[in-house]
Each structure stands twice: as structure tokens, then as C-alpha cells.
Design goal:
This protein starts with 7 loop residues before the first helix and ends in an 8-residue tail after the last helix. The chain contains ten helices and four strands. The chain is mostly helical. It is rod-shaped and about 100 Å long.
Length: about 220
């Protein structure tokens, strides 16, 4: 991070950011000429060449307004402006030191978070939207155990759309489907972890794009 008591470091940052976006505005030319005249970071030739290139691409009114304030030497640079000047390595090093390296993303933790979202995101079983959050999983397991001990009963079961009445066979089917969904979610996370280790998955976007079990 640049020092808060410096007036030219944020100016440099703004100018270089605008340049990276291929912008060419009057304020950029003025800033670059000022930096060159002040010999900021001991690269005046770069700043003046950058200022000349920016000025050469401005509309006539802005260009003439700037030319009126230039020395003959500076005006000659504008007339001779060619390609964009290359940033000196010394300046690149200075600018790179202003911002810390981004904190690496823990891909394993991201995959675990993704798995949890998929695991608990619900599943559709025979057109019924069944909740699969951890509490619902526990209740489904309890209902399954109940109908196994009492196969002749029917049970009240709450779906995302409301209550339904299910036979023991239907409750068993739901329990099996939810169990399969949960296991598939963990299996997917395990495969993602393997691919992270192998280097075939290196970004969070690739984790998101993996073939996770559907919640639809």
C-alpha cells in the first residue's frame, strides 16, 4: 500500500490503472507531464513519453489546451509520439510493492463449503421437494427407523411444499434417496480433492463447475 502522506503515489496508481484500460484522457496527460517534470521515481523519460502519447490521441481542443502549456521540447515529443512506451522495470517493482499479494484461496476448504451447500440444498424425489439440511436428515433417519419397526403405519412428512402422508415404502424410498444424495455429495468432494492434489483443479471456478449432485 502506498503511503498516505504521498501526493504522487495515488496519482501514479490512477494514471497507470487508466492506462491499463487503454484510456486516454486530458487529466492523464497532465498528470504524466507533471510526473515527468518532477522526475518521479527517476524515470522522467517514461513519464514524458507517456504524456506525449496520451496527448497525441486527444481531441483537438484538449490537445491544444495542453500544448499551450508545454515547452518546445515537450511539444516536440507530442509531435513525434509513436507506440506506447514500455514501463521501466524499476517502476514496475515500485508499483508491485504497493499492494500485497492476494491471500491464496484454500481450495480444499472451498470444496468443503461447496459440498455442504449441495448436500443441504435439498433434492426432488417423485416431484416432492425434500429438505436435506442436517436437521431434516436426522428427522428422515428417525422416520425411516420408525417405519422399519412399524411397516404397517403411515407417517406425516413435511416437504418444502407442506405436509404429506407416506406409507412405509414411500418413507423408505425417500430415506434412501436422501442418503444417496448425501453420499454423492461427499463422493464429489473427495473427487475434487483428488483433482486439486493432481493439479487439474486450480481455481474456485473449476470447483463450482464440477459435476456436483443436483439439487433440482
Amino acid at each position: 500500500m502506498y503511503r498516505i502522506d504521498s501526493m504522487y503515489e495515488p496519482m501514479v496508481e490512477a494514471l497507470l490503472s487508466a492506462r491499463s484500460e487503454n484510456r486516454a484522457d486530458r487529466w492523464m496527460a497532465c498528470a504524466a507531464f507533471w510526473l515527468g517534470r518532477q522526475q518521479i521515481y527517476n524515470v522522467p523519460d517514461y513519464w514524458l513519453a507517456l504524456a506525449a502519447k496520451i496527448t497525441s490521441g486527444l481531441d483537438a481542443a484538449d490537445k491544444n489546451a495542453i500544448l499551450d502549456q508545454l515547452s518546445n521540447k515537450e511539444a516536440a515529443l507530442v509531435s513525434a509520439a509513436g507506440d506506447w512506451p514500455e514501463m521501466p522495470s524499476s517502476l514496475q517493482a515500485v508499483v508491485a510493492g504497493w499492494s500485497p499479494e492476494p491471500i491464496p484461496v484454500d481450495l480444499y476448504a472451498y470444496a468443503a463449503t461447496k459440498r455442504y451447500a449441495v448436500e443441504t440444498g435439498g433434492v426432488v424425489i417423485d416431484t416432492m421437494r425434500v429438505m436435506t439440511d442436517r436437521q431434516s436428515q436426522s428427522l428422515i433417519t428417525g422416520a425411516y427407523n420408525y417405519v422399519q419397526a412399524n411397516p404397517e403405519v403411515t407417517v406425516k412428512f413435511k416437504t418444502a411444499a407442506g405436509f404429506v402422508e407416506l406409507t412405509a415404502a414411500q418413507m423408505t424410498a425417500i430415506a434412501n434417496a436422501v442418503g444417496a444424495h448425501v453420499q454423492a455429495s461427499f463422493a464429489a468432494e473427495g473427487e475434487v480433492d483428488k483433482q486439486i492434489i493432481a493439479g487439474t483443479i486450480t481455481t474456485t471456478a473449476e470447483i463450482d463447475a464440477f459435476a456436483w449432485p443436483s439439487n433440482a
